[in-house]
Design brief:
CATH topology of the largest domain: Heat Shock Protein 90
CATH architecture of the largest domain: 2-Layer Sandwich
CATH superfamily of the largest domain: Histidine kinase-like ATPase, C-terminal domain
Helix content: 25-40%
Distance between the termini: 86 Å
Strand content: 15-25%
CATH class of the largest domain: Alpha Beta
Structural class: alpha+beta
Oligomer: single chain
Shape: elongated
Largest sheet: 9 strands, mixed
Strand order of the largest sheet: 1-6-5-4-7-3-2-8-9
Number of helices: 22
Radius of gyration: 32 Å
Number of strands: 22
Number of domains: 4
Length: 627
């Protein structure tokens, strides 16, 4: 078959431009990525060979080999792993197939920090273009007779053609730029491998350029998690994290433990320092890799970790599963379920310890992963109490994050409810008129800006006997006022319109708005705003109703809200004063609609008729300015 030239997927082209134009400070990471890919290829073949031993062809000594050609200025990274077919070369190197990666690349700005993200796409291979003018990839799949060559200069296209390769596996030939001769130096390569790839569980071998000289193994070649913690340096832990998570940040926490007894297993787990790019992908899949006796089995063992711990990275290795266990049977394995339960317990214990002893550090974790961890409050009743204990929340208290226990400890005398407000943004929640009455009375309100908050709160209902109550739902339920507060409230009430005027205004607003609202009533909930919308006691919270409607999960339209008016506000006073005058019902028509639209806008909604809203607003402004 003749050579065929193809165009890169658009996202790959953008990624390659970012790589080519970057001044990345640690160029040597390309070698780590290529060695890591070679190791993964060997892991995949080792697993497939459990049921298809013929794939090994008598060669079960897996390794990654480095070789240099000073004359040609090339560095070659080879493995004897699973290899790739022609179609796999095109799919793996010409496109970004991993879910969410295309969108992430589109969001890249092109600065240096973007380059540090490419490993998360599973395409760390492209880092080779940081140091090269051209890259050749020659690969032969373990069960194939033919080999294929993939070639690109890292610009807009790549070429694929038949090639010669006697054995299975993949060779990546990096044609180094003139300024990158350091990567032809055996000592420099040895230092890089020792620094970044010492943890690789198979030999990384450097072939000598001198004829007759034996190859040299550059790494420890033993799985890091099998070593004793005291024999592992902080840098080795960090580089293994980089290898398993395909990231470049420092881990926020490292958990290395071994269990012995009826079930034996080792875990080396990491909590990242930054959010992984796939954290909010729809599959919500955990990314911990399962090994059986150092043989990689799967990175999709769902029984190991629940989806609300999907930010955890690392490996779990057990002696108690058969090597030929299928991926399909993993989900139903009672042994794996027990291991998974212990792993979850260990991770939550680490989080609880840090939340108690290092609260400032824990706030960093919570900013990254709190929204995900709260999914467990809804989904995992068995661990709900433990998750609630380590959960942290922002509140109107304004003194940083708070636990539920601390909130309850600060409740006012006579307060028997935990007040909260849910929405999409903390700053917008703080500006909500629904908080005005609570803040005036110094009643703390939890601010819940994550979508999952609308689900776990009604699921648990209460905490330590205190019921959760939304400040946007039902009547405003305040703590009984103290004597000083009663006096202040009475002074404010003296400035309110007469009850008869207010009753007339409420009746007129109901008449004008009809079934656009469920009810109209005065409220103590407001202090500075004239109006707000609230949900009825038995209705869905308005924010939750909007979420479900946008997701197409609401079978019938949500109930219309209740319009609450603030009798202390100047606008309401003026309207109340004119409510009993002749012709008030006609003049009240526009005012009623404007009040309702104003309440909708405050809620983050649009007026039902934007054109009519604009006309009414213009008429009111013109009338006011003409006086």
């Amino acid at each position: 078959m003749p050579e065929e030239t193809m165009q890169f997927q658009a996202e790959v082209s953008k990624l390659l431009k970012i790589v080519a134009n970057s001044l990345y400070s640690q160029k040597e990471i390309f070698l780590r990525e290529l060695i890591s890919n070679g190791s993964d290829a060997c892991d995949r073949l080792r697993y497939e060979a459990l049921t298809k031993p013929d794939l090994l062809g008598g060669d079960g000594d897996f390794r990654v080999t480095l070789s240099v050609d000073p004359k040609a200025k090339t560095l070659t990274v080879s493995d004897n792993g699973i290899g790739m077919t022609r179609d796999e070369l095109i799919d793996n190197l010409g496109t970004i197939a991993r879910s969410g990666s295309a969108q992430a690349v589109e969001a890249m700005s092109g600065d240096e920090t973007d380059v540090s993200l490419i490993g998360q796409f599973g395409v760390g291979f492209y880092s080779a273009f940081i140091v090269s003018d051209k890259v050749d990839v020659i690969s032969r799949r373990a069960d194939a007779d033919e080999a294929w060559r993939w070639t690109s200069s890292g610009e807009g296209d790549f070429a694929v053609a038949e090639a010669d390769r006697e054995t299975r596996g993949t060779s990546v030939i990096v044609h180094l730029k003139k300024a990158e001769k350091e990567f032809l130096d055996p000592e420099r390569l040895g230092t890089i491998v020792k620094t970044y790839s010492d943890h690789i569980g198979l030999p990384v071998v450097l072939e000598s350029a001198i004829e007759g000289e034996d190859p040299k193994i550059l790494n420890e070649a033993s799985a890091l998690w099998t070593r004793r913690p005291k024999d592992i340096t902080k840098d080795q832990y960090k580089e293994f994290y980089h290898h398993t998570a395909h990231v470049y940040d420092d881990p926020w926490a490292t958990i290395h433990a071994k269990a012995e007894g009826r079930i034996e297993y080792s875990m080396l787990l990491y909590i990242p320092g930054v959010r992984p790019l796939d954290l909010f992908q729809p599959d919500r899949r955990a990314r911990v890799r399962l090994y059986v006796r150092r043989v990689f089995i799967s990175d999709e063992a769902e029984a190991l970790l629940p989806s609300y711990l999907r930010f955890v990275r690392g490996v779990v290795d057990t002696e108690d599963l058969p090597l030929n266990v299928s991926r399909e049977l993993l989900q139903d394995s009672p042994i794996l379920a027990k291991i998974g339960s212990a792993v979850v317990k260990r991770v939550l214990r680490e989080l609880e310890k840090r939340a108690d002893k290092k609260p400032e550090e824990f706030e960093e974790f919570w900013a990254n992963f709190g929204a995900v961890l709260k999914e467990g409050i809804y989904e995992d009743p068995a661990r709900r109490d433990q998750l609630l204990k380590i959960s942290r929340f922002q509140s109107t208290n304004g003194s940083g994050l708070t636990s539920l226990a601390d909130y309850v400890g600060r409740m006012k005398d006579g307060q028997d409810k935990i007040h909260y407000i849910a929405g999409e943004d903390t700053e917008k929640l703080m500006a909500s008129p629904h908080l005005e009455g609570f803040m005036a009375r110094d009643i703390e309100v939890l601010l819940l800006p994550d979508a999952i908050d609308e689900f776990w709160v009604p699921t648990i209902g209460e905490f330590e006997g205190k019921k959760f109550v939304s400040v946007t739902q039902g009547e405003a339920d305040f703590v009984p006022l103290g004597e000083d507060e009663k006096d202040a409230d009475k002074d404010a009430d003296d400035d309110k319109p007469a009850e008869g005027e207010l009753s007339t205004l409420v009746a007129l607003l109901k008449q004008q708005l009809g079934d656009q609202v469920k009810d109209v009533r005065t409220t103590d909930r407001l202090r500075e705003s004239p109006v707000c919308l609230v949900a009825g006691d038995s209705d869905l919270d308005r924010h939750l109703a909007r979420m479900l409607k946008q997701a197409g999960q609401l079978e019938k339209p949500p109930a219309n809200g209740i319009l609450e008016i603030n009798p202390r506000h100047a606008l309401i006073k003026v309207l109340a004063a004119g409510a009993g005058k002749p012709g008030a019902s006609e003049t009240m028509s526009d005012a009623a609609q404007l009040l309702l639209d104003q309440a909708r806008i405050i809620e983050g909604e649009l007026p039902k008729d934007p054109a009519a809203f604009s006309r009414r607003m213009a008429d009111v402004m013109a009338a006011a300015l003409s006086k």
